[in-house]
Amino acid sequence: MRLVQVAIAGAAAMAVACSGSVKPGVAAKPLGTVSADVLQHHKNSTKDGLYVDPLFTRDAAANLHRETDYRVDLPGQVYAQPLYVENGPGGTPAVFVATELNYVLAIDASSGAELWRTNLDPPATHFPCGNINPEGVTGTPVIDLDWRAIYVGGNTEIDGVANEKIYALSIDDGSLLDGWPVDVPATVSYGGLPFNSPPQGQRGGLLLLNGYLYVPYGGRFGDCGSYRGWVVAVPQGDPSSPSAFATNININGGGIWAPAGLSSDGVSVFASTGNTFSAPIWSGGEAVFRLGDGATFSGDVADHFYPSNWRTLDSNDADISGVAPVLVDVPNANPSQLAVLTSKRGVTYLLDRNYLGGMGTGDGIHGEGVFSDQLIGSTVINAPAAFTTANGTFVAMTSTGSGVGCPTPGNLVVYQIAPDLDTGAPTASVVWCASVSTTARYGPIVTTPDGFSEPVLWTISANRMLGFDAETGEVLFDGGGPDDLMMSTPARFVAPIAVNGRIFVAADSQLYAFTTQ
User: Fold this and answer.
1) Run of H or E including 269
2) 338 has pLDDT over 90
């Protein structure tokens, strides 16, 4: 195992030893403050991409511009979303970035200076299939401030064979924490099925819940080999004893590969799975699962859902796993606590997240779950954003084509979830659309100064940032002039983050910053 950690001048030596089950002491946050920390993909465990920041008003959105003197060159291409800690190394606000060359870096959020970098094991370069090479860190890491740790899923190589590992590093100096990394194929199995690393890909964001680190796995581009959908659960206090869930021990496929990865309501873990291959009966594909601590699955109908046309979805490669479940609460609806999902082919499902219900009973488009309908007419693979205002609950996502029923055609689609006037059951319909770049299907985010008013929808379009009134679609920021161009185009499915009136984007192998000030 090779791990090189380099401390950069200016990074205070605030080393933390996290061994056993004893958490290090952490200074309490001041009361009454809004946390700017971005510790996981799409900000919150519900994976709604909602950022509460008093500096992001609608008026401020119109002033967004790129900080032309802030550009950080990164060692390797970036697919993972950046993370942010206000009280970073030595108290310095820091952005954390992980790359496909298996580097993890802490960067001064103000100056762009490097605080530390750690090089994990060499990235993998030999695969049975795939479209990222070399491949190191692809899924977005997750940070635990209590442990002062950043957890990373890295693809490495042993004797020419791709091998998945899970690392834990100190956010203060980048050092490897005791007991890590976890060698996944050497320690993980499910029902007698060993974890077969070469065909498995780690694309989805990591999640922390109830003392466990959860890491999702799917296949690689090209769908080769005996991959499954896996969720590996690693106890933070005892990384030598991981447990796992896999979609089926006999049928290939069912990968968990959505960019946002896993979501949580603070009690359970939710995962969506892709198509299986030659399954004579339903075998875990095209589904939403609710898992308990340690990635346990009850098998109950309350804890899984799959559409009635799952065979057709399988045969058409029409996964419902290109989007992770987004968890929202819809006031006055019955049920009001929902898991929202849109399939690769644009069908949106509203599910009662407390009773997923087993197999759907509709026609594949309508009547599946609590509600389903074709809201988008083309491919959807990204991380949606969701927000609630006095006017209702909304979900936004990008696709390769237009939404269904758009007032003005466009592939940035926003739909509203509202209770039916007669039954109170939640329904969804498109409210506005806009045209953005279709090539990379970036994950939008929403900012609001207080959590419910003046929502602004931000998305990347090619090499520009765009900002919209999230309720109406009015353009608030149109990408700006030449100085507002990103100097390179981000990798597919990348999402920005919003912090203290600024937006950070990892674009190819650079980190850029935009500001409203």
Assistant:
1) strand 269-272
2) yes
Is residue 286 in some structural domain?
yes
Measuring CA to CA, which residue among 408, 375, 377, 379 is closest to residue 394?
375
DSSP state of 201: B
pTM, to two decimals: 0.93
| H or E stretch covering 290 | strand 288-291
Cα separation, 223 vs 391, whole angstroms: 42
Task: Kindly state whether residue 25 falls inside one of the protein's structural domains.
Answer: no
| Domain annotation covers residue 20 | no
Amino acid at the residue 444: P
> How many Å apart are CA 487 and CA 493, to the nearest integer?
18
> Does the CA dihedral 219-224-228-232 come out positive or negative?
negative
Is position 195 within any domain?
yes
> CATH number, domain at 448?
2.140.10.10
* Boundaries of domain holding 262: 4-8+36-515
Lookup: tokens for 173: 């100096």
What is the per-residue pLDDT across 171-194, written as a single tens digit (0 to 9) for each? 999 999 999 999 999 999 999 999
Q: What is the phi/psi pair of residue 482, to 5°?
A: -55, -35
pLDDT bin (cut points 50, 70, 90) of residue 436 is very high
Q: Which residue has the tokens 């205002």?
A: 389
- E strands of 357-480, at which residues? 358-359, 371-374, 385-389, 392-398, 412-419, 426-434, 445-448, 456-461, 464-469, 475-477
Contact (Cβ atoms closer than 8 angstroms) between residue 171 and residue 116: no
Question: So what's the pLDDT on residue 25?
Answer: 32
| Domain tally, the chain | 1
Helices (H) and strands (E) in the chain, counts: 3, 37
User: Nearest 5°: CA angle at 109, between 108 and 111?
Assistant: 65
Determine what percent of the chain is predicted with pLDDT higher than 70: 93
Please compute the mean of the pLDDT values over residues 118-128 and round it to a whole number: 91
Q: pLDDT tens, 501-514?
A: 999 999 989 999 99
Cα 365 from chain centre? 26
Residue 295 is given by DSSP the state G
Q: What integer pLDDT is reported at residue 448 of this predicted model?
A: 97
Contacts of 251 (CB under 8 A, 6+ apart): 276, 277, 278, 279, 283, 284, 285
